[in-house]
Known about the structure:
Layout: H1 22-32, E1 41-46, E2 51-55, H2 56-67, E3 83-92, E4 95-100, E5 103-108, E6 129-141, E7 144-150, H3 152-155, H4 159-163, E8 171-180, E9 183-188, E10 193-199, E11 210-219, E12 224-234
Parallel strand pairs: 10-12
Antiparallel strand pairs: 1-2, 3-4, 3-6, 4-5, 6-7, 8-9, 8-11, 9-10, 11-12
Amino acid sequence: MIPLSEMMINLKEDASSDYGDIINRQNKILGNMLGSEIDFLIKGIDNKTRSVAASRKDAMLKKRQIFYLPDANGVSRVCEGRIVQARVLAVAEKTARVEIFGVEYSIPARDLSYDWMGDATDSYHVGDQILVRITHVSVTSVSDITVKADVKSVIGNASAENLKKCKVQGKYIGTVTDIHKGTVFIRLSIGVNAVAHSCYDSRLPGKKDEVSFVVTRIDSERNVAVGLISRIVKQNI
């Protein structure tokens, strides 16, 4: 048994973070963590009830001490630019929360992949172990460490190479990943990001719809294909 107070789920409690009762928010985060792998230190054993009391907080602080604080030579194991392993604790549509050696960080979808991603839960799952590249580390003390990381720089970007497969006036199948202010963002099946500003189908496209996309222009600078949706092949209902 690990008490909520020993789970090290630290949330800001101020006017700018008015997301409801702090305990309810912590419980919601815990619910999202079901199935995740965590470390803990045993604090006590009750042989009568055959139960163990433990602390995730103590384990997290111990790991921080080992991996983030400088050693005798002044070198930290986790530093900017280093590729390390992270545990996926929770996944939402546009973010994946990971633990990197005792420090938690929510990686936004734009940093998970160069490919436009409609729903991060399609590619990442609680309990996964993934490689991330550390992009920022700030250490004030063991209890005050912030870290930022991304996945896309580890897995690389094949968009430029895939874009060569695209031809102007070519027709391709793709999946709608997002819609913003009338612009439709599509991930083509040939591995290319595409943008459509108009749709010739009488129906309005929605997220995760499968569409037929016609290329009108190649934007090599942004590595995207620009064009229009000729029709909606399959709606996501």
